[in-house]
From TrEMBL:
Residues 60-311 form the ATP-grasp domain. This is Alpha-L-glutamate ligase-like protein. Gene3D superfamilies: ATP-grasp fold, B domain. It comes from Biformimicrobium ophioploci. The lineage of its organism: Bacteria, Pseudomonadati, Pseudomonadota, Gammaproteobacteria, Cellvibrionales. The keyword Manganese applies. Pfam families: ATPgrasp_ST. PROSITE patterns: ATP_GRASP. Keywords: ATP-binding, Manganese, Nucleotide-binding. It comes from the Bacteria.
Length: 330
C-alpha cells in the first residue's frame, strides 16, 4: 500500500493539468521528501544537536549564548504547580503568545492580542476565558502538541510588534521569514503571511500565504496558498508584487549565523521582524518542510548541489562571506 503524500499532491496541483512522475519532478530540480530525509537531514544533521532546535526553550538558551536576538520570554511552566505563576504573568500582559516548547507547524500556539474585561481576545476577535487559557496550558504540559506526544513545557512569549512595512501583507497575525540554510549558506527564503484562517500564526498548514523571496534583494518572487498560486493577500487584497522584506541583509545574516549556533547542516530558520528590535530568531527547525519550493516556483535540489560541490576551504568562510556568496549565486 502506498502512503498518501500531500507533498506530491501539491506538486501535481502546482504543475496542474498534467501528472508528474518523480523523475519529472527531479528534472524541475524539486527536492522530494525521501531525498531530503536521507541525502540531507540524515547526512548533514548530527542527531545529538537536535535537542537545541526541537525544544524552543533550549533554542532560546543557545541563542542567548550566541548573541542571537530572540522574542522575549515572559514565563515558563513545566508542571501544574506553575499555574498560579502563569496566571500572574498573563494577568499583567495585554498581549502574549502561549506555545509548546516542543511543538511544530503552529500547533498549540495561542495568540492573545487584547483584553476585554476578564476575557482574552485572539487575533480573530474570538474571546477566551482565563480557564480556557489555563486548560490550554495544561494540554501543552501533557504533551498534546509535542513531538512524539512527550510531556512538554509551556512558554509564554511577548507578542511581537512587527515591522509596519509588512502590515498590509499579513492579517491578524505576525508574518515570519523562513530561510533554509545549508552548511551555513542560505539557499532559499520565503515570507509567510498570516490570514484570517491561520488564526494569528504564519504556518502554511494553518492557511498562511507563502511568498518566495529573492535571496539577493529580499523581493517577492511568487506567492502560494494551500499549494495554489495567488497574486494578492486573501484578506487585505494587497498585491505581493511590490513586496520587499525590510532589513533584508540583517535577516539573511541572522539566518546564516544559526549554523554556528545549532551545528546543523540542513536547517530551517524562522525569523520575525520586530518594529524596534529588528530581526529576531523565532525558532529553528532540523526538518524544514519542502513547500518553500512551491512558494519560490523552483526547486532546492540544484542549489543544494551547488553548495555540495564547493571546495573544502569555502566552508571556512564566515557568516558575511557565506551570505555574500549565496546572494551572488542564487
Ligand atoms: N511571540 C510571538 N508573537 C507573535 N506571533 C507569534 C509569536 N510566536 C509565534 N507567533 C506566530 O506563530 C507562528 C508559529 O510560531 P513558531 O514559534 O515558529 O512555532 P512552530 O514551531 O509551531 O512553527 C509564527 O510564524 C507567528 O506567526
Ligand atoms: Mg515555525
Amino acid at each position: 500500500m502506498t502512503r498518501h503524500n500531500p507533498w506530491k499532491q501539491r506538486i501535481k496541483e502546482f504543475f496542474s493539468s498534467w501528472l508528474v512522475s518523480p523523475a519529472e519532478l527531479r528534472s524541475y530540480g524539486v527536492l522530494g521528501m525521501n531525498a531530503r530525509n536521507i541525502r540531507y537531514i540524515a547526512h548533514y544533521n548530527d542527531r545529538t544537536r537536535y535537542p537545541v532546535v526541537d525544544d524552543k526553550f533550549k533554542t532560546k538558551l543557545a541563542a542567548r549564548k550566541a548573541n542571537i536576538p530572540v522574542p522575549e520570554l515572559l514565563a515558563t511552566m513545566d508542571s501544574q504547580a506553575g499555574r498560579k505563576a502563569l496566571l500572574h504573568t498573563i494577568e499583567q500582559c495585554e498581549k502574549f503568545v502561549i506555545k509548546p516548547a516542543r511543538g511544530s507547524g503552529g500547533k498549540g500556539i495561542l495568540v492573545i492580542n487584547g483584553r476585554d474585561g476578564d476575557l482574552y481576545v485572539k487575533p480573530s476577535g474570538v474571546r477566551v476565558t482565563t480557564e480556557d487559557v489555563l486548560r490550554h496550558a495544561s494540554n501543552i504540559l501533557s504533551g498534546l502538541y509535542s513531538l512524539g506526544g512527550k510531556p512538554d513545557r509551556v512558554l509564554v512569549e511577548a507578542m511581537i510588534d512587527f515591522d509596519p512595512a509588512l502590515a498590509d501583507y499579513s492579517f491578524e497575525g505576525v508574518p515570519d521569514i523562513r530561510i533554509i540554510v545549508f552548511r551555513g549558506f542560505p539557499v532559499m527564503a520565503m515570507l509567510r503571511c498570516s490570514t484570517h484562517a491561520s488564526d494569528g500564526k504564519a504556518n502554511l498548514h494553518q492557511g498562511a500565504v507563502g511568498v518566495g523571496v529573492d535571496l539577493a534583494s529580499g523581493r517577492a518572487i511568487h506567492a502560494v496558498r494551500h499549494g495554489y498560486r495567488v497574486d494578492r493577500h486573501p484578506d487585505t487584497e494587497m498585491p505581493f508584487d511590490k513586496l520587499v522584506v525590510p532589513d533584508w541583509s540583517r535577516v539573511i545574516r541572522l539566518a546564516a549565523s544559526c549554523y554556528e549556533m545549532t551545528g546543523l547542516g540542513y536547517l530551517g530558520c524562522d525569523i520575525v521582524l520586530d518594529r524596534k528590535r529588528g530581526p529576531l530568531l523565532l525558532e529553528a527547525n532540523a526538518r524544514p518542510g519542502l513547500a518553500i519550493q512551491i512558494a519560490n516556483g523552483g526547486g532546492l535540489r540544484g542549489r543544494l548541489k551547488m553548495i555540495e560541490s564547493l571546495e573544502p576551504e569555502q566552508f571556512e568562510k564566515n557568516v558575511e562571506e557565506r551570505v555574500r556568496y549565496s546572494q551572488l549565486i542564487f
